Amino acid sequence: MKYKITLLFLLFSLLSSINVICKNNENNIQVLEPVDWEIMQCGKSKIGQKEKCTLFIINETDKPIQGYWLSNTNLLGKPKFAFIEANQSKKWDIKADEYWVFSDLAKNALGVYKTLPGQCKIIINDSNFANTRKLPTNIRDKTIPGTISGGTIIKEQTAYDVIQYDIKMEIFPDKKYIKATNTISAVVTDELYNFVFDLDTLLKVKNVFLEEDTTKVPLNAKFQKEKYWCKLPRHRNKGDTLKICVEYEGNPRSATHAPYQGGFSWHKTENCQHWIATSCQLDGADLWFPCKDYQWDEPDSVKLSFTVPIGLKAISNGVLKDTVNNNNLTTTYFWEVNNPINNYAIALNIAPYIHLTDNYLSLYGDTINISYWVLPENLSIAKQFYPNIKNYLDFIEATIGPYPFRKEKLGIVEVPYVGMEHQTIIAYGPNYTTKYQGYNSVLYHELCHEWFGNMITAHDWSDFWIQEGLTGYMEALYEEHLNGEQGYQKKMEIKKKNIKNKNPLVFDSIVNSRNGFDGDSYNKGIYLMHSLRYLIGKENIIKVLRIMAYPKKQIELKTNGGQCRFASTNDFFNIVEEVSNKNYDWFKMVYFKHAEVPALKISENKNGIMLKWLTKENLPFKMPLEIRTKDGIQKIDFVENMATIDIKRNELLEFDPNSWILFNIMK
Questions:
Q1: 260, 516, 573, 626: which has the highest count of C-beta atoms within 10 A?
Q2: pLDDT tens track for 294-325
Q3: Looking at the structure, do residues 260 and 335 belong to the same domain, yes or no?
Q4: Is the pLDDT of residue 190 over 80?
């Protein structure tokens, strides 16, 4: 009995102590109160290293609610875990210094809250419904389908070659509206009866003129087959030149998941000034100006003038030629590009930017103007962050040759999305984080695109891996430079995990941007560069990259557009063959023309282990394979996809121990 009483006393004491702890913990939970509604329009969650926050959400109402995370670019994210049924509660482990907005399912905002370090609690009750606002429209939504670029070619658009775009645009940020003209100068390459151009249907064509000498001849623009058709007064022959001026206006398509579903991103700075950016790689430049929306026809030059409300700056490609104040109401910025440029790499960025300037002495003797346009709230950290780009340039120039657009500028501009390789004005989201000391992979990646993407462009989306695979492999080489083999191998491990093998890297037919764009263009493209390194060596893989960028030494001297050109997968493998003195068509056919990777079939007989590469359509596959046994690593060569090893199965410890090859083991 004595022991029972003691046990009960101990149990009571334990329960009491637990109750006290629970009460103390409850007392330590900070109840978050709503902050100003204006945060929905102009607030931003902080980025970088932040303290942890355990957030308890208590929905005391009889209606379900949805939570939205307000990103560092003033964009609402809609995570699935943030849905809470009526009269239910949830616990989230998130970060401090984040803004969260809650709404009902009719998108009436019920409150905005800022998380704090430690444990926090938000209570949503009927009082939240007494004072509501409509959710902003800037909700990041991956499910909204984007438009396309490229694809099927019609003879009316192959019959002319664009020489120049001359875009004049006025932007009305409060109305999310533009009024503009684009004068398209072109040379006729085949008999032409109709001038056909692309423009998104959300924009209205007001007038189209054929400019001849000093006269403007009106043309009737008829929309059919997803394009605008203008019958010319008389047909044009090969060698003739044309100037077509298109007047248009409207509310351009808003980006719902920039830059993947692009258009105009309409955002605000912390002090609620406009912060606007375009992106259109996958959707096509016709989202915001009339053009020939194919990657294979780049204008040789572009003139750009943008008129914006006073206090805002309009930043674009090329060189700033002039700035004009229009009666203290608006400002017009005049930019000029004198190198060939991808349609999707033409960009407009608007904000109350602060302009930071710098110079870089190229390894090839030129002084390059570097310009950074940053938001006022990020000025201090930007001054510390952006100069690291000089280290990137040192490595890239030493590896593959001079910066291609050094006679214009190297520009970086802050945008409200992750980033984009807009020529001479790289778009970068204000995420000032570093993986290694002084290294940000996104900014480095977009910089490498000035070589592979802007100077060297895949002729069609069917070869898109060239732009992303080569650029991504430059990342791997730089991480190897910074952190040795460990950094390189870690990069390859990450890429390998994300390979899907759903579509071929190279299509046999012309495809549009949505068909050609695939995560494997990045991950598999990069990993196959790694596999080629296994076959030809690091020194040779760098030679391939160097020749791909600059096939001849004299091209390194060009800055007037002669350095720019298109490339295909066949061009790439011609260079591989030139460098290695070996033919790798088998590698191209198996890995690039087919989605499925080879399988290794293993069997055992009295002579040892039989290995066989199984490939789609029984294609030849000459890949040597490293194996690990108790005696170490040895390399096995295959003849007609087969090899024999004079060992027992249980003596073979590992296939491809250094992870060079993409393959599956057949079970």
A1: 516
A2: 999 999 999 999 999 999 999 999 999 999 99
A3: yes
A4: yes
